């Protein structure tokens, strides 16, 4: 068996390993995070658009552009239900809710398949830079420098597409470094930047990194730098931005829609001009705390990038001054290092463990760029040895954390299922129940899906049906017999009885009343209103 089979075998092994995680750690869509509900909402909205050949706006693209996640969601639903993934009435909505277990399984399987395709796409984009063995080590880094890379391959969200962003970035960067005076590399730069923005604004590090590589080439790569060359460079820069802005507006207006696209532009402009808001890290102590939290979570991505990218930039600067590096190698190294450092800056501005996946996706190119810039065989062997060491260390740290992530999801699902069964026994079939954000049960989840799907006749029909089990995000009942309160947002009995609004995101207040009965379950509180049967 030749070496050429090693790559396909490793990829197949990765797919099998990810699939085994799905089987070993069964979980519920309703007990997941908001992205599992966003998946159903996006599938519902897209199914209605395609069925009616009409545009319905959707909140699934109202907070982040998330266009790739929106398209992926409907494809995963179609893979599970076929033509059943099309419709725009209450029957269609109910079909999605009733088939949630099947749809969630398809969501996970399609996430695994997409991960495999993105690995192939990234490898193809970077094929010009290094041999297959080096690329395999580089891709291994993506999966081990944060446990979220594996977890989010099986439970997709916006950051899962970070590898797609970087595959396009690598393709554009390599073509730009090869021929900075031609037009087509700048077209690719525009496409890569547009795709990054239309996924999430934090991925615009692609734009900054491409501009850094462009500046390096303009200063050190184009010789002679006469009037004609300058004009061609400026022409390329203009094409770059015309393509990126044109694609962003075309997709924004036709897929996201004028309402939410305008809201996103206002939000992103406010972020660029006034900062990311009150939830951002406001001091060096906050930043250091975020790095510590990331390390404690089993991730090594942040320190690896900060050390390697800074060292690579310093090495390129010295080599450039000594004329010991080619313009191609220097531009690729500068682009790779700037992308990685900018991704870290974005994460440390507003930290979340899932955001580190975006940093992890920059690590493969960072390693490959360092290998390429090293030049001679001995130096390159040293780079590979260091990378293998980082893979082993990171895998050793990430493995227990990966198990914890999946086990926590299983535990939450089983506890939520037990709570739901207990609630059904206590409330009976005739009582009205109101589920508040973010009760991990279908009672809350279906209202969330309807609210973010935003197909008017589905919402109207759901409210008109006035069913006994309702979500605070799609409610017609005003005086329910029971209220289900998530313990994440009201963790103690004192909090529940304090008179505060028990629903953290809805303006319609739900508060404790004198005479109510409080029943403690595992994941939720169950409030029996004083006027309810048995109260």
Outline the fold blueprint.
Elements: H1 6-24, H2 34-52, H3 67-81, H4 90-98, H5 100-125, H6 132-144, H7 147-154, H8 162-178, H9 184-199, H10 205-221, H11 227-256, H12 258-274, H13 284-296, H14 301-321, H15 327-349, H16 356-360, H17 363-374, H18 377-427, E1 433-435, H19 442-453, H20 456-465, E2 469-471, E3 482-486, H21 493-497, E4 517-520, E5 524-528
Helix pairs in contact: 1-5, 2-3, 2-19, 3-5, 5-8, 6-17, 6-18, 7-18, 8-9, 8-10, 8-15, 9-10, 9-11, 10-15, 11-12, 14-15, 14-17, 15-17, 17-18
Throw out a few tags for this protein.
single chain; 535 residues; mainly alpha; five-stranded mixed β-sheet; 67% helix; elongated; membrane
Strand order of the largest sheet: 2-1-3-5-4
N-to-C span: 73 Å
Beta-strand content bin: under 5%
Helix and strand composition category: mainly alpha
Unreliable stretches, pLDDT < 50, 5 or more residues?
none
**Net shape:** elongated
User: How many H/I helices?
Assistant: 21
Mean pLDDT, to the nearest integer, reads 93
Which range best describes the helical content: under 10%, 10-25%, 25-40%, 40-55%, 55-70% or over 70%? 55-70%
| N-to-C SSE string, H for helix and E for strand | HHHHHHHHHHHHHHHHHHEHHEEHEE
Major sheet details: 5 strands, mixed
Question: What's the total count of β strands?
Answer: 5
C-alpha Rg, in Å?
25 Å
